[in-house]
Amino acid sequence: MKLVRHRGFLVLLLFLGGLLLAGAGESSVPILGRQYVRISDWAQKAGLQVRWVKQDETLELTNTKFRIHLRVNSSESDVNGVNVRLLFPVAVRNGAACLAQLDAETTFRPILSPPVNRPGMKVKTICLDPGHGGDDPGYKLGGREEKKLTLLLAQEISAQLNKAGFKVSLTRTSDKKIELPMRPELAKRRGADMFVSLHFNAFPQKTVEGTEVYCLTPAGAPSSNAGGEGAGAGSFAGNRLNDKNMSLAYQMQKSLTKSLAVEDRGVHRARFWVLRDAVMPAVLIEGGFLSHPTEGKKIADPAYRRQMARAIVDAIVAYKRQVEQKT
User: Fold this and answer.
1) Residues of the domain holding 95
2) Banded model confidence at residue 246, pLDDT cuts 50, 70, 90
């Protein structure tokens, strides 16, 4: 009986000692009420080397596959030449550069260590969502209407996906208005393995151009467009797929910017209705600015839309190959 008690006491001491050691090595840093991690500690666990490009201003993290650039007091980051917007700015505390825990987990982890499907789970059916429609034309400039151009782009992507062996469904095939909550619902009913919403941008300042891709904002973080549909900090159905959403968004932005040689406006987060209610990996693409004199004309050109469709299909194929790889 005494031996059992002594063993139990020893186990308790070892357990408490383990907790103390874990606490002593803990890299978590509270900053403005949020949890951050020291970038040096996080990078070591992620297999990245860290160096200051400019002390207390710019950091570079590298390994054989990735090169990441971060700036202190900025939410901008660059991953292998692709702009990825952070949820929170990089900070410095006690001389150490720190990254928000949410960014470590939901921004960088899905890019550095992409999620993989369970065995037998394939990416076969793609739901394309041409934005706007009916009495909602989207952006209009002369004879160019966003609702018409998104449908034309969806039709081109569909044709290319079919040739690549995918099954494709469109939320609308004509000039018809589909309510926002119904769009991801249609994808669910049709058993889609991926949801891609297609849009074009506009801005009063006509010099603004480039592509950007959105995926759903993680719970507890601000969106890139706080005024967008579904604004709020709660958790939605789509948040169960945060890792796959980010992985897909990164592949999409990388393919679009490299293939089209356009300005890289980055991977962003938003709580758009079509993203928050999607129960499959989902992204929203802003394929360029109709308001830009040159880019707007390109978007209206069928040849350019074919090129854009090719870039989107390439990203879908790259994502499929990534998530279906054997572990």
Assistant:
1) 27-112
2) very high
Q: In which region does residue 10 sit, left (phi positive, over 0), alpha (psi from -120 to 50) or beta (all else)?
A: alpha
Q: Does residue 184 sit in the same domain as residue 281?
A: yes
- The tokens for 312 are 């989107």
Long-range contacts of 181-187 (CB under 8 A, 24+ apart): 181/273, 181/277, 183/129, 183/273, 183/274, 184/238, 184/273, 184/274, 184/275, 184/277, 184/278, 184/279, 184/282, 185/277, 186/127, 187/127, 187/129, 187/278, 187/280, 187/282
pLDDT per residue as tens digits for the range 252-282 = 999 999 999 999 999 999 999 999 999 999 9
- Residues 103 and 131 reside in one and the same domain: no
Chain length of the chain: 327
Residue 264, token pair as written in the block: 């890289």
CATH number of domain containing 95: 3.30.457.10
Instruction: Record the pTM.
Output: 0.90
Q: Are residues 66 and 153 in the same domain?
A: no
> Could you tell me if 159 and 89 lie in one domain?
no
Residue 280 and residue 286: Cα distance in Å, rounded?
A: 20
Last residue of a domain, one of 90, 112, 134: 112
If asked whether residues 262 and 172 sit together in one domain, one would say: yes
* Residue 53 CB coordination number (10 Å): 11
Angstrom CA distances, 274 to 78, 85, 86, 167, 279, stand at 27, 20, 21, 20, 10
The gap between the terminal CA atoms of the chain, to the nearest Å, is 48
Compute, in degrees rounded to 10, the torsion defined by CA atoms 77, 80, 83, 89: -10
Q: How many CB atoms lie within 10 A of CB 240?
A: 12
